């Protein structure tokens, strides 16, 4: 059989690049979808990599991008819904645009990606979906739209695993805690982030922070044949900090 194919959305970001690197090492051909810098990011990786400019909130772009992968490699074995945003806000300061934008990227995007991969999975007899959640789905965080979107992603996963199970598709969530990537720069300045990261390490029974590669290893396991009977599940990659109260 030819090498399996993975799509990683938000592929140009911190976690996306780590996931792509590990999947390439596991023998996947990888398509990086991103609304910014997909081709440049693909150029930084070696192996069979495709950079595709695509905004996951735009159904036409999603359809066209998946068609491009299908034309190039003829299949999609693993879909990694990794694109995500977390604009700073509280409920009191909430603007409807912030709510809408967060839900569109973090929840509508994964639903559209799954929808347009289904014909391929039906034709090839199965596939894998792993979506990037967050520990906040469980204990809540401090950005309401973000926490709601990540809790919604678990709901989407549980319904998708029922609808897609008969097609041989597993659907799971990997839920990290704080990880140093460009993601957190949208929330606060570097000094605050250093303190914040320290509080996460203290809240971990292991006393340490999660790194992008830890998240990538969990994704790689869930898309592998070893995880063929795991579906509808949430795996926290949080060094145990998912057990701590919300961290501020
Ligand atoms: N970094 C953390 O602390 C952390 C913790 C828990 C969960 N997560 C989740 O992990 C995932 C990846 O986060 P990261 O840390 O790599 O962030 P990042 O900001 O480094 O990367 C996110 C990528 O998503 C892309 N993106 C955003 N909106 C998009 C859209 N509409 N269409 C296509 N691409 C889009 C961005 O351009 C960026 O390249 C996210 O879903 C995030 O919620 C991150």
Automatic annotation (TrEMBL):
InterPro entries: NAD(P)-bd_dom_sf, SDR_fam. It comes from the Bacteria. CDD domains: SDR_c (cd05233). One of its GO terms (molecular function) is oxidoreductase activity. Keywords: Membrane, Oxidoreductase, Transmembrane, Transmembrane helix. The chain crosses the membrane at residues 6-25. Belongs to the short-chain dehydrogenases/reductases (SDR) family. This is SDR family oxidoreductase. It comes from Amycolatopsis rhizosphaerae. The lineage of its organism: Bacteria, Bacillati, Actinomycetota, Actinomycetes, Pseudonocardiales.
